Amino acid sequence: MGPDPKEDAKMDPTTTRRETEIEDEATAGASDDEADEERDDLSEQKLEELLTQAIECFADEGEMPCAHIRTFEDAGVLTMNRGLVLQIGATEFQLTIVRSR
Fold first, then answer.
1. Are 59 and 66 in contact (CB under 8 A)?
2. pLDDT confidence tier of residue 14, bands split at 50, 70 and 90
3. Strands, E assignment, 1-101
4. What is the pTM assigned to this prediction?
5. Which residues, listed in sequence order, are joined to residue 92 by a DSSP beta bridge?
6. 63 & 80 share domain
7. Which of 3, 41, 68, 83 is 20 to 30 A from residue 98's alpha carbon, by CA?
8. 19-64: per-residue pLDDT in tens?
9. Same domain, yes or no, for 35 and 58?
10. What is the DSSP letter of 32?
11. Do 10 and 29 fall into the same domain?
12. Do 89 and 66 belong to one domain?
């Protein structure tokens, strides 16, 4: 690997600070586009739907008592996160879905 042209440009006295900032923004924009594509693969909402279906299927097969499932939004949970409120008899669970990458 040779020297990094980006680093050379930063060290070059004829390169203006704005030119370097523009180049940095362009590079950051490219990685943002890649991240957006990855996010499209499986969103928090899609995972919420998949978990709901899986829990309902599991309950339908008689593997667990009847469960009442609501999304955080439907249950009025005050959070910006997505998730599920799972009620089995008198017991209630909250499953929070947070994308880490």
1. yes
2. low
3. 67-71, 82-88, 91-97
4. 0.56
5. 87
6. yes
7. 68
8. 555 565 555 555 566 655 555 678 999 999 999 999 888 888 876 7
9. no
10. H
11. yes
12. yes
